[in-house]
Amino acid sequence: MKEEVSRKYIDNSSFMEFISEMSTKITEVNFGADTWVEHDTGMSFSEEAQDYYNEKYDDYEMMANNIMGIYSINDLKL
Is 56:23 a contact under the CB 8 Å cutoff? Predict the structure, then answer.
């Protein structure tokens, strides 16, 4: 039987920044030069890269929760 990991709650912006950085890096590794599209207002993910990023964000968030027990303070049930 798997032992339940104790939960640790951290600032939401820190949690989101970490998950986003991890997701961005893996997206860049997988899409290389096709990761970014330039617009008049700046850069954004290509459509395919954005879809991949969204999947990875969800995956990494779930791993942080389930493996490390790290959650956003916004998930704390008061």
Answer: yes
How many degrees, rounded to 5, is the angle at CA 75 between CA 47 and CA 54?
10
3-39 pLDDT per residue, tens: 777 999 999 999 999 999 999 999 999 999 999 999 9
Q: Using an 8 Å Cβ cutoff, are 11 and 76 in contact? A: no
Where does the chain have alpha helices with state H? 12-31, 47-63
The set of residues, in sequence order, having a beta carbon less than 8 Å from that of 46 and lying 6+ positions away, is 31, 34, 35, 36, 37
Closest CA to 30 of 53, 63, 58, 59: 53
Confidence of residue 78 (pLDDT cuts 50, 70, 90): low
